[in-house]
Amino acid sequence: MKKSDPKWKLIEEVVSVIEKEVSPESHVEHDVWLPDLTESSKKRRCDIVIRSGKPPRETITIVEVQNRSKKFDITLFDGLCTKMRKVGAQHLICVSRKGFPESIKKEAIKQGPTVRLITLEKLQEGDWPVNIFENCIFISERNILEIQNPRLGVKKGCIPSIKDETKSSAEPLFEYEGHSQRLSISDLANIHIDEHERKNRCLFNKVITEKVHFPEVNKRLWHLQNGTKTEIVAFDFTAKVDIKKVKIPLTCLSYKQIGTPSSLAWLMEAKCSYQNQELEIQMTLFPLDDGNYRVKISKIPTHFKDKFSIFEV
Questions:
Q1: pLDDT value for 268
Q2: Backbone angles phi, psi at 85, to 5 degrees
Q3: Predicted TM-score (pTM) above 0.90
Q4: Nearest-angstrom CA–CA distance, 198 and 194
Q5: Which of 33, 40, 43, 212 is the most buried (most CB within 10 A)?
Q6: How far apart are CA 7 and CA 97, in angstroms?
């Protein structure tokens, strides 16, 4: 391949990023001929080869780069998957500037973390903000086991005591400032856990018992009973919740830098499969002075929002 070839330039960019992302024990090569394990006399050309670990536990990842004006087509993609198997590689990463058709994205999702699709616009400054080999999101799967000792406090002059209609934790009896829909006690418990996890930058992975207090400072909470709306000044209860931390690999990824050279951010679009559903997620990553990123979720399925907590990079 000639160094004047535009594809060569893209390969050099990708190699540069990969070398910074992989562990020190990994070895990165480009323009490599690997033996075809199905035909002893044949070799197959690979744009980039990453070797991780030591034999017999060595893992081989091949990276194939497409810099044409057209997207990958399914025939080319199938050929690369065949190449991966024939050279004995465990992973395939396809990199394109022009993206991938839906047929390839669906096929890649079926194959799970074995195959990754990366759409990468030209690097302007800095590195990718995420490790393409460990790209995933973590979500909390929550099951409210028990709500204990719910206590409501109202303003002076209002109904001194509200009948216990809170025995069903799923009944939407509350309106909370900043939320468009009515909420149940379970919803309030999830809001509390979300906030706790965000502040501590971690996800629980156990059964927890949390003392919950609402409303938050500068927010208002109302209880709805028999057509009457009563403002609540304090609502306390104890929630016992079974929380499982679930890791979901991201299969189809697209990155591009946005903003001005003095204030660059990354726009990331991804697809993943969760509970037999295909999900599309879009997020913006803003660089911080300490080298980390602030994440803003700009697109996520409505039915998935209550489960999504932290995107880890």
A1: 73
A2: -70, -40
A3: no
A4: 6
A5: 212
A6: 10
